[in-house]
Design goal:
Blueprint (H helix, E strand, L loop, with lengths): L5 H18 L11 E5 L2 E4 H17 L4 E4 H6 L11 E8 L1 H5 L6 E8 L2 E9 L4 E6 L4 E3 L2 E3 L10 E4 L6 H10 L5 E3 L5 H9 L5 E4 L4 H14 L2 E3 L16 E4 L2 H11 L5
Parallel strand pairs: 3-4, 10-11, 10-12
Antiparallel strand pairs: 1-2, 4-5, 5-6, 6-7, 7-8, 8-9, 12-14, 13-14
């Protein structure tokens, strides 16, 4: 039996509408002047801004007393990050922008709801698959209304989706020494809305994240943990959305896989 709360259904409809109106008509159709660079390897498009504006307005109407922290709003004004310690919606309007600008999948939209620095609900939407991963703290993890339980790949060695993009030379060398010999390494999708499902659906066993920005990770961390996997800081502490200057996190399909990986890593990438 499928299970959608009224809030899940409301968010699902908003995400579908945003994707159908702004995202899918421009997929592989972006003009050059619709793409800008916020920094090295960090594009932003007219789609990011249009969807964030729409969702900010819609979520504010839904809950007028809850702040909204959007990725592009923070890019324009870093002081918006201060709202992460309060009750807030967190929006990644186009997760996987780099893929989208190249006309590639995957990409999606992510929304989290947090209070006092902890995510309490989340939604990760893949418009190509019409797949909604949704979660409420303490109530399990779901895909399109069906409760799911995380499963491993069952492979030996375990499958690790790891990017070295944001690691320095010393960290890359440490990864090569401590991790590479013990895991089967695969490319990451550069899209949290896809990476977290891979960790729960038997495609990947491990991922390690250097950057842990709230709009990328708040919803996925909660969803994976509620599914029975484990996502936590490298030292084992709980992920908080308001620790925006902190780096380093491990996601795993099971707590045992998490512990084995953390033991090998020894926290030095934090």
């Amino acid at each position: 039996m499928t299970e959608f709360s009224p809030l899940d259904a409301e968010i699902r409809d908003l995400l579908r509408f945003a994707a159908e109106r702004s995202m899918m008509p421009r997929f592989r159709m972006l003009a050059e002047d619709e793409i800008e660079m916020k920094g090295k390897d960090d594009p932003v498009t007219v789609v990011d801004r249009e969807i964030e504006e729409f969702l900010t307005e819609a979520l504010t109407k839904l809950a007028p007393d809850v702040a909204v922290v959007g990725e592009e709003a923070v890019a324009a004004d870093p002081n918006v990050l201060d709202k992460l310690s309060d009750a807030c919606w967190i929006i990644d309007p186009l997760d996987g922008t780099a893929n989208f600008t190249k006309g590639k999948e995957p990409f999606g939209i992510i929304i989290a709801l947090a209070d006092a620095g902890i995510a309490v609900a989340g939604w990760l939407y893949d418009p190509i698959k019409d797949r909604l991963c949704h979660v409420r703290k303490g109530d399990g993890a779901y895909i399109n209304g069906e409760r799911i339980t995380a499963k491993t790949t069952g492979q030996t060695p375990p499958v690790a989706g790891i990017s070295t993009l944001f690691l320095n030379d010393e960290q890359r060398a440490e990864m090569d020494e401590k991790i590479t010999p013990h895991y089967s390494l695969v490319d990451i999708p550069r899209c949290a809305a896809e990476q977290y499902p891979r960790l729960a659906l038997g495609e990947n066993d491990i991922s390690v994240f250097k950057r842990t920005l709230a709009w990328d990770h708040a919803a996925g961390v909660l969803w994976l943990n509620e599914a029975g996997g484990k996502a936590a800081r490298i030292d084992g502490s709980e992920y908080r959305v308001d620790e925006h200057d902190r780096t380093g996190m491990i996601g795993a399909a099971s707590p045992d896989l998490w512990e084995a990986f953390a033991k090998r890593l020894e926290g030095r990438l934090d």
